[in-house]
Design brief:
Distance between the termini: 31 Å
Mean pLDDT: 87
Strand order of the largest sheet: 1-2
Largest sheet: 2 strands, antiparallel
Radius of gyration: 20 Å
Low-confidence stretches: 1-9
Order of helices and strands: HHHHEEHHHHHHHH
Number of strands: 2
Number of helices: 12
Length: 255
């Protein structure tokens, strides 16, 4: 664990910064990050018992309270389960909360694979195309105007980080405009998917790609503004598919 004056940045910080949050870094978050990453990476395998508290305390040089809080957080995310007289066991992957921002960030920290990005895109398509359709049926004039505003910001972005931030805000605004609180609750999934895609391949430095990406988001915004649910669905599907294809293509060409 980096205990020098400035702790090393990791993808959790990157995701937080793109979404406008200021991530708190403290002993609890550092222990949580290292243990979570060790579990997701397979360093501690599914079904394995974690080292004892005394061993973990020795490793991390933290108080028992800090360690227990980190373990409680991992349990809440579905990664571990404490059993009396047995110890703390790593739960099967199908018990993990993959919609959790930290769990997604741990996968990303390991280096996203094409299959992982494809799974994210498939889930987004399953949810966000209906969010766009509902937004077309329910959003008001101010919400529709805000969507157009985010598209204009995307078009004028000068850095990949700015573009990713505006794109994220656009998708969050669509989810909120749907009027369905469950749609809005997937923001961590969208943050992860967009962060991964734009870290691997941003359209900002490619005028043609930027024009295509901005154009499809403009189609979404205009369809929602016009109350055209079917066009909103189709445009949202195109936007998600284009983002995946761009990132996957860059990953495959770099191999």
């Amino acid at each position: 664990m980096d205990r020098s004056g400035g702790r090393a940045r990791h993808s959790g910080d990157l995701i937080a910064s793109l979404s406008g949050r200021n991530p708190a870094r403290n002993l609890h978050s550092d222990v949580l990050w290292e243990l979570g990453l060790a579990i997701v990476s397979g360093q501690y395998a599914e079904g394995e018992i974690l080292p004892s508290d005394s061993e973990l305390l020795e490793r991390f040089k933290v108080s028992r309270t800090v360690l227990r809080e980190a373990l409680k957080t991992l349990a809440a995310k579905g990664l571990i389960e404490a059993r009396a007289r047995i110890g703390t066991r790593i739960l099967p992957r199908n018990r993990w909360n993959l919609f959790d921002a930290d769990v997604l960030a741990w996968f990303f920290e390991l280096g996203p694979e094409v299959g992982f990005l494809r799974s994210l895109a498939e889930v987004r398509i399953g949810i966000e195309i209906e969010a766009a359709a509902l937004a077309a049926e329910r959003c008001g004039a101010e919400e529709a105007e805000a969507l157009i505003g985010w598209v204009e910001k995307m078009a004028s972005s000068e850095t990949p980080a700015d573009f990713a931030r505006y794109d994220l805000e656009f998708h969050k605004a669509v989810a909120e405009a749907s009027g369905n609180p469950f749609m809005a609750s997937i923001s961590a999934l969208v943050e992860m998917a967009l962060t991964a895609a734009f870290t691997i391949s941003s359209p900002v430095n490619d005028p043609a790609a930027l024009e295509v990406t901005v154009g499809v988001h403009r189609r979404i915004a205009e369809a929602i503004r016009d109350g055209d649910a079917q066009s909103a669905r189709l445009a949202m599907r195109d936007a998600i598919a284009q983002g995946f294809d761009r990132a996957a293509g860059r990953m495959e060409n770099s191999e």
